[in-house]
Amino acid sequence: MDVAALSVSMNQASLKQAVGLQVLSIAKNQAEIQGQNLTQMLAQSLDPNLGKTLDIKV
């Protein structure tokens, strides 16, 4: 394998990693915003106890 082909391959792998990290960052930001919106919606609820507890039976 020649040096040029190895260099191209390494650059492609680096680009794939950078793109993957950026996509994960965008997804994380969207999840944080959705969580904040949900918290705000629950705070504005007519029933102040709504969403405070979770009853589970197994």
Automatic annotation (TrEMBL):
Any Pfam family hit: YjfB_motility
Superkingdom per UniProt: Bacteria
InterPro entries cross-referenced by the UniProt entry: YjfB_motility
Protein name per its UniProtKB record: Putative motility protein
Organism: Paenibacillus jilunlii
Source taxonomy: Bacteria, Bacillati, Bacillota, Bacilli, Bacillales
